Amino acid sequence: MSKKVVIIGGVAGGASVAARVRRLDEGADITMFERGEHVSFSNCALPFFLSRTVKAGEDLVLMNPSKFLKQYNIKAKTKHEVLKINPEQKTVLVKDLDSGKEFGESYDVLVLSPGARPVLPRSIKGIDKPHVFAIRNVTDIRALDDYIGEHNAEYITVVGAGFIGIEAAENLHHAGKKVTVVEKLNQVLPVFDYDIVQILHKEMYDKGINLILGNGLSEITDTEVILENGTKIKSDVVICSIGVAAETELAKDCGIEIGETGAIKVNHNYETSIKDIYAVGDAIEVTHRITRKKTRLTLAGPAQKQARAAADAIYGKKSANRGVIGSSVIRCFDFNAASTGLNEKQCTAAGIDYDYAYIIPADKVSIMPDARPLFFKLLFARPSGEILGAQAIGKGNADKRIDVIAAMIGMGATVEDLKEAELCYSPVYGTAKDAVNHAALVASNILDGTFRQVCVSDVRSLVESGACIIDVREKREFEAGHIKNARNIPLSELRERMDEIPSDKPVYVHCRSGQRSYNAVCALQGAGKTNVYNVSGSFLGLCEYEYFADKVLSREPIVTAYNFK
Length: 565
Description:
Strand order of the largest sheet: 5-2-1-9-20
CATH topology of the largest domain: FAD/NAD(P)-binding domain
Helix content: 25-40%
CATH superfamily of the largest domain: FAD/NAD(P)-binding domain
CATH class of the largest domain: Alpha Beta
Low-confidence stretches: none
Distance between the termini: 65 Å
Largest sheet: 5 strands, parallel
Strand content: 15-25%
Number of helices: 16
Mean pLDDT: 96
Radius of gyration: 27 Å
Number of strands: 32
Structural class: alpha/beta
CATH architecture of the largest domain: 3-Layer(bba) Sandwich
């Protein structure tokens, strides 16, 4: 028997449920209620309208109610807000926001896809001022863009450096605005580890973004924002991108169970605690595949998968709900940054014994004119070698490498499996030993105890303590810029100069990006030196790590000159 399906909310979750239900049941009576102006639009593309990368606001709208009705026989009612759910009667109370009229709608199955709302802390004085905006939908981005144009706004402050905040800042910069980004944490994009995200800090600084980290918003006036430390920043417009909170009011009011994360609790079929009511998208609680802990994930890809699985469950079709790992990518000016799985902070919080391989290979064969360094970090469990996560930042296809890791995590793979992964190769696309294979080989060596490593974040303290640091680059490379107090013994001369390497204290070896220093470590260990460490990331990684903080803190560099090539 065909069902009457009512869906609250559209976009990635609700609209995908509606489309899947229609494919499964041509006779179904399907109605979507959306309180906003648009039922299907590209959330993730919203910031790109500010620079006109997306030419018009209409281009953000993917489907309108007329198309839903004509192409799919789905009734999509915009500017209709569901006020109440009555599970016993299987009805919802709906308000037409244009006319103000309220009416009841019955259902056989109800699907909640209310999404998440931007967090606007009321404790911040001035948060309600007319030049303060959040970005959630097409109406929001148009209102922001209109205000900027009508008031000839030049100075714009973005509060919060997550995905939307970074993309808004970049696009406003492209539009010729003077942009400040304020972030309470000590880094942007917390899905990345502190060591590798410094590359993005440098990129934003170099592009002219006023990036303020470790400082929160205290007050908004008509012309300024005032930070917690008293700093005042000229601001014609303020964009709040502090975070989002799950829209759970309707669910709570009708007695649906809320999970430990504050989002809607669902079972493996995305059914809530009340029979025949399902929930998908940003408002639900999900299980992290690796930690097995409850979490929230506000991404369109998982929402669409949840939507299909929920629709299948409504019609008795089984789905495999194996949890989420959180794969994401962002462009930050000239760099692409992607991540999947766990980072170091998450591994520590989950009590996982882990290690990592940090490498900087070329993203293509080095003789190709557009070959660029790829900063790649692979996290793995000890002693099993199970792949836990990865992060990649570069001017090439960082997402391609992270997609490989995401697939491997999905199969429960180890670094040994990744070593053998057979991937496409052409000099114009990659290298015969791709970055992911390379990282797996390094990870395997770390697990086997082939060598020991220290990370770039440790180098400053090593320099300050007078540690023995050996630079195995050639003399001309060394003279172009090197770690202060480092000694230059090129790899080509190392075997003839072994007696210059001390045996009575730790020795830290580095090169440009890691390959030569690894070979130097092997040579030294082969000669009986047991006190040798490889500097993970080497000189290139160190320069990227140190640069931003050196500049904004006006601190003394630990290198004689930076080198980013």
